[in-house]
Design brief:
Layout (H helix, E strand, L loop, with lengths): L20 H6 L17 H8 L2 H25 L5 H19 L12 H13 L12 H37 L4 E6 L2 E7 H26 L1 E2 L15 H7 L4 E2 L3 H6 L3 H27 L7 E2 L18 H23 L15 H23 L2 E2 L1 H6 L8 H12 L3 H10 L9 H6 L12 H12 L1
Parallel strand pairs: 3-4
Antiparallel strand pairs: 1-2, 5-6
Helix pairs in contact: 3-4, 3-6, 3-8, 4-5, 6-7, 6-12, 6-17, 7-10, 7-17, 10-11, 10-12, 11-12, 14-15
The structure holds arginine.
The site of arginine (ARG) has 9 residues, from helix 6.
């Protein structure tokens, strides 16, 4: 440590320094499930390297491992592989372990290797020989699969719910601003008359498509890998339908080798679905950065949602949407990570797969928090109607309308009408922008946004 208490090796203040010595001392404390008493212990650097920050994600898996362990114990009892009494006692002991963990009475440590080991060690510590009965017919390989699967199902359910909430809020926003004119852009230049309602409706429909995508992915992953053991099943006569029912899965994931091979593949699929949401939000975020800027001033964000500058007193910055834009790429990188790891390993379990836990959880967190920020921003977003209407003083926005009118009113061919308007661009005019917005009758155009159809989908899905 140097003079001010900073570790010279890792440059972290002393009380947070995770220098290796701490682990050299403590690694000998705990025995792994696979260790014997005669000193086949691990070098502490190996534990440090293999576990890394895995305990952060394993802490989130803990409640799911408890639930799955209870289902496994109950099934062992039903199949007379342990006594019914042992099964009930194990379930009670598992509940107690969870309660004690929540109360902070025990913690996960790197020396445990993973959450599954930690729970079994805790069971044995609390119940002696009873704790040693639970692992019949299972492996940590199917334990981690089922715990991750349950976590993903839970987070997917939450994400699907939040998607509907966000779509609902944006749909109400679109409805409220159906007739507020807004220029439509192509190539970042004025193109055609559009409206705030049409712009917002675009994101509603996009979010609902993402909802369909994620619902489909939920169907794919809704299968129970528990009972696949190390990846080949066992000769223990388990009842896999029983744990499937108890854990609320739609079906058994039948082939044990596929159970293992789906790790990484399913994660990639889920994160890819989550990326669709982030792609929707990335477009929205970029629009917000642009449309809230002083060049456009179409919208104003509430002051409490913008940040200031340390040097420029005049600034209020849309950091929330810039961070959101960047988070799209974090999730994109997570897709690549899961795909790459799950792509070309030899069939069965490989420890490589453990690195897919973090990107999945991070991606769920980013999607859920981004959706929440969108709801926050839009519930107080100010629409500057005067500014938006003033854009239409640039009558070039009506050029295509004028050509269409020459066809529909004067019977010209479109190409002749186009040429005529192109020759007289300086003569374009518009008396009533609001009428222009309302008088666009086909489905999807500004006069017929079809928002009620989005509403219908939302209500059906909410049931
Ligand atoms: N923590 C491990 C993982 O996430 C659990 C499975 C351990 N299995 C093993 N054979 N070491 O993959």
């Amino acid at each position: 440590l140097n003079r001010i208490g900073i570790c010279k090796i890792c440059v972290i203040a002393h009380n947070r320094c995770k220098s290796k010595e701490k682990y050299i001392m403590s690694d000998t404390k705990k025995q792994k499930l696979w260790q014997s008493d005669n000193g086949d212990g691990l070098h502490p650097l190996v534990t440090e390297y293999i576990v890394g920050d895995e305990m952060d994600t394993d802490a989130l898996l803990l409640p799911y491992d408890i639930v799955a362990s209870k289902a496994h114990a109950t099934m062992l009892g039903e199949c007379n592989l342990i006594t019914p009494r042992q099964a009930t006692d194990l379930c009670e002991a598992l509940d107690k372990i969870l309660a004690e963990y929540k109360a902070g009475l025990w913690v996960l440590e790197k020396e445990d290797e993973d959450v599954h080991t930690a729970i079994e060690l805790q069971l044995v510590k609390n119940c002696g020989d009873l704790g040693k009965t639970i692992h019949l017919g299972r492996s940590r390989n199917d334990q981690v699969l089922v715990a991750v699967r349950l976590l993903c199902k839970n987070r997917l359910t939450q994400t699907l719910h939040d998607l509907l909430e966000t779509a609902q809020l944006l749909n109400s926003f679109a409805e409220k601003h159906t007739t507020v004119p807004m220029p439509g852009f192509t190539h970042m230049q004025y193109a055609m008359p559009s409206s705030v309602g049409q712009w917002a409706g675009a994101f509603v429909e996009s979010l609902l498509c993402d909802h369909m995508t994620l619902s489909g992915i939920m169907k794919v992953i809704d299968c129970n890998p528990l009972g696949s053991a190390a990846g080949f099943g066992t000769h223990v006569p388990l009842d896999r339908e029983s744990t499937t029912k108890a854990l609320g899965f739609e079906r058994v994931q039948i082939n044990p080798i596929f159970c293992q091979n789906s790790r990484g593949k399913f994660e990639a699929e889920i994160v890819h679905g989550l990326l669709q949401v982030m792609m929707t939000l990335g477009r929205l975020a970029n629009d917000m950065v642009i449309f809230c800027s002083q060049h456009y001033k179409f919208f104003s964000l509430a002051t409490s949602l913008t940040t200031g500058s340390s040097i420029m007193p005049q600034k209020r910055n849309p950091d929330i949407f810039e961070v959101m834009r960047a988070n799209v790429h974090v999730v994109q990188a997570n897709v690549l990570l899961c795909q790459s790891v799950g792509m070309n390993l030899i069939s069965g379990y490989n420890k490589d797969l453990k690195v897919t836990k973090k990107p999945v959880i991070e991606s769920f967190n980013l999607v859920v928090s981004s959706l929440e920020i969108v709801r926050l921003a839009f519930s107080s977003l100010k629409v500057n109607e005067v500014v938006l209407e003033k854009c239409f003083e640039d009558t070039s926005l009506f050029a295509a309308d004028a050509a269409n009118d020459l066809v529909m009113k004067d019977g010209m061919t479109f190409r002749d009408a186009y040429r005529q308007v192109k020759n007289d661009l300086d003569q374009l005019s518009c008396a009533d922008v609001s009428a222009v917005i309302k008088n666009r009758p086909h489905l999807g155009a500004t006069g017929n946004l079809g928002l009620e159809k989005y509403q219908e989908y939302i209500e059906v899905q909410r049931k």
